[in-house]
Amino acid sequence: MVKKNTCIFISGKGSNLKNLILHSRESIFPIKISLVISDNKNANGILYAKKYQIPYIFINTKSKNYENIVLLILKKYKISFICLAGYMKIISNKIIKNYQNKIVNIHPSLLPKFKGLNTFSRMLKNKEKKAGCTVHYVNEKLDSGSTILQKKFFIDQKDDEKILKYKTQKLEYRAFPEAIIKIFRKS
Ligand code: GAR
């Protein structure tokens, strides 16, 4: 099987990145992580890129023309698939146009509910019964591309934001790899 050359975008902790790296080391997993891009020089996730000897690049999304630079880098590494794993910036339309249906994101809610930030506090405030995560394609609108896969759990009365995040991330570590397998099984 020829693995898809993949770039993972991160901003912070990088636990989903680490999980995807470990999966990608299995021969039957459809992607090879060839590049990590971070918009944050202090992102902990960079440590995983270093540990597993994956090239990594920092980008400054405030600099003019940054999309062109990103597109050139992606071309240089022959990237054909992109995963946003805790990337906290909006990906620009120019990049999306060049990678139509080739960019996926993991989001910590059951979309279309709770797009954007602060998902857990809003869920608690709303007295939601269920929480979970969504892996979806990225389009021009925030957290609105079509869903590939969702995993959910029932919120316990005792759950606070910290516990919701913990439970959600545990599901994310299953959801993201499963979604990637699902995408490439179809194609
Ligand atoms: C993940 O829980 C992901 O769902 C969320 O950020 C976390 C990153 O954790 N993404 C978003 O909120 C995107 N809007 P990680 O850096 O440990 O993978």
What does this structure look like?
- By secondary structure, the chain is of the alpha/beta class.
- 35% of the residues lie in helices and 23% in strands.
- The protein has 6 helices and 7 strands.
- The chain has a 7-stranded mixed sheet.
- The longest helix has 26 residues, at 161-186.
- It is globular.
- 35% of the residues are buried.
- The model has no long low-confidence stretch (mean pLDDT 97).
- Bound molecules: glycinamide ribonucleotide.
- Glycinamide ribonucleotide (GAR) binds at residues 10, 12-16, 45, 85-86, 106-108, 133, 169, 172.
Q: So how many helices?
A: 6
Compute the gyration radius: what is it?
Answer: 16 Å
Biggest sheet character: 7 strands, mixed
Category by helix and strand content: alpha/beta
The shape, in one word, is globular
Strand percentage: 15-25%
Tally of DSSP β-strands: 7
Model regions low in confidence, pLDDT < 50 over at least 5 residues: none
Strand and helix order:
EHEHEHEHEHEEH
- Biggest sheet strand line-up: 3-2-1-4-5-6-7
In whole angstroms, the N-to-C terminal distance is: 13 Å
Bound molecules: glycinamide ribonucleotide
Q: Helical proportion? A: 25-40%
On the 0 to 100 scale, the average pLDDT is 97
Provide a quick synopsis of the model.
The chain has 6 helices and 7 strands, in the order βαβαβαβαβαββα. The protein is of the alpha/beta class.
Describe the SSE topology:
Layout: E1 4-10, H1 15-24, E2 31-38, H2 46-51, E3 56-58, H3 66-76, E4 81-84, H4 93-98, E5 103-107, H5 119-125, E6 130-137, E7 147-154, H6 161-186
Parallel strand pairs: 1-2, 1-4, 2-3, 4-5
Antiparallel strand pairs: 5-6, 6-7
The site of glycinamide ribonucleotide (GAR) has 15 residues, from α1, β5 and α6.
